[in-house]
Design a protein that fits this description.
Distance between the termini: 31 Å
CATH topology of the largest domain: Rossmann fold
Number of strands: 14
Region (Disordered): 298-334
Keywords: ATP-binding, Nucleotide-binding, Transport
Bound molecules: adenosine-5'-triphosphate
Helix content: 25-40%
CATH architecture of the largest domain: 3-Layer(aba) Sandwich
Number of domains: 2
Number of helices: 12
Organism: Pseudofrankia asymbiotica
Family: Belongs to the ABC transporter superfamily.
CATH class of the largest domain: Alpha Beta
Biased composition (Low complexity): 308-321
């Protein structure tokens, strides 16, 4: 398990990580999401002792990283795939890493097999493609057979086959009971890979929720309805405390009732319906929506008006299961 408590990191006047509290549970893949500059890498660097928190703490299995005598056997890390000696072969690189912590030579062969690099084990790392480099980075992270894996943007620059491979590997490792903490700025990718999400923006916690709940709350309860008796239907629905907004001559946007309930009410009132569509948002849209005000640089693009997505509706504690509690903070103060 990874636990951050009031974790804060300032670089001069810049607050990179701002009072983050969350925990990452074993047995599932937890996605660490946020726009560029949100503080993901800084958080991960603090988790493995490469940066010191200005305030608060982050522990792995209840201990600070520096307290591990054989850290590779506790927590595997992929921060920068290219941080290897390019003149060495993949095998020699892994062997050198293994020898620093008394990991047996046979484990090098095992992890090469695990990541599918056995056939190129003798090749110089300098000639590796980006995808092979990522595989080597993961092999290195897996050397000590750790129970915790921290991976910073492991799918960056990979082709679809490589992305699918990492996705399956991470899910398999999580199913073995490991704690998998993986950062990305791609919501759609994380939705396929992760079970739980921790979303940050400008260093602050925006959401800490299951992927399922994130999708549900992002999609909200907005339903598009078309009826030749839209005015009458609005009266019926308003009596049920729905919020109806005319969007055309015969169309309504309805908040606060499910499409099933709207259909039933229309039927009971003898009102014909020509369309009844729950509003769907793409995950990428939901993510953009929830992090919009937390983006450091928006490339000068004009910001479209906010849709009344329910992604911000559910409040909650800073630990497990909150969507939008931090978003309010980020919007209010950023
Ligand atoms: N050593 C440093 N000195 C000063 N500012 C830093 C330093 N490291 C990070 N920052 C700043 O802290 C903020 C968070 O950066 P960080 O790299 O953690 O974000 P990120 O979410 O990982 O972004 P990306 O997806 O772009 O890697 C950014 O504004 C960054 O410029």
């Amino acid at each position: 398990m990874i636990e951050a408590r009031s974790l804060t990191k300032r670089y001069g006047s810049k607050t990179a990580v701002d009072d983050l509290t969350f925990s990452v549970q074993p047995g599932v893949v937890t996605g660490f999401l946020g726009p560029n500059g949100a503080g993901k890498s800084t958080t991960m660097r603090m988790a493995i002792g490469l940066d010191r928190p200005t305030k608060g703490k982050i522990t792995v299995n209840g201990r600070a990283y520096r307290d591990f005598s054989a850290p590779l056997c506790e927590v595997g890390v992929l921060l920068e795939a290219k941080a290897v000696h390019t003149g060495r072969s993949a095998y020699k690189h892994l062997l050198a890493v293994a020898q620093t912590q008394g990991i047996p030579r046979r484990r090098v062969d095992e992890v090469l097999g695990l990541v599918g690099l056995s056939d190129v084990a003798g090749k110089r790392v300098g000639g590796f493609s980006l995808g092979m480099g990522q595989r080597l980075g993961i092999a290195s992270a897996m050397l000590g057979d750790p129970g915790v894996l921290i991976l910073d943007e492991p799918v960056n620059g990979l082709d679809p086959e490589g992305i699918r491979w990492i996705r399956t590997l991470l899910q398999t490792l999580a199913a073995e009971g490991r704690t998998i903490f993986v950062s990305s700025h791609l919501m759609s990718e994380m939705a396929l890979t992760a079970t739980h999400l921790i979303v940050v923006g400008r260093g602050r916690l925006i959401a800490n929720t299951s992927v399922e709940d994130f999708i549900r709350s992002a999609s909200g309860d907005l339903v598009h309805v078309r009826s030749p008796q839209a005015g009458r239907l609005a009266e019926v629905l308003d009596r049920e405390n729905a919020k109806t907004t005319p969007t055309g001559l015969d169309t309504l946007a309805v908040n606060g009732l499910t499409s099933q309930r709207i259909g039933d009410l229309a039927f009971e009132a003898g009102i014909p319906l020509h369309e009844l569509t729950p509003r769907q948002v793409s995950l990428e849209d939901a993510f953009m929506d929830i992090t919009r005000d937390a983006v450091e640089y928006n490339h000068g693009q004009p910001q479209p008006p906010r849709v009344p997505a329910a992604a911000t509706a559910a409040g909650g504690a800073a630990d497990q299961g909150s969507v939008g509690a931090g978003a309010t903070t980020a919007r209010g103060q950023a």
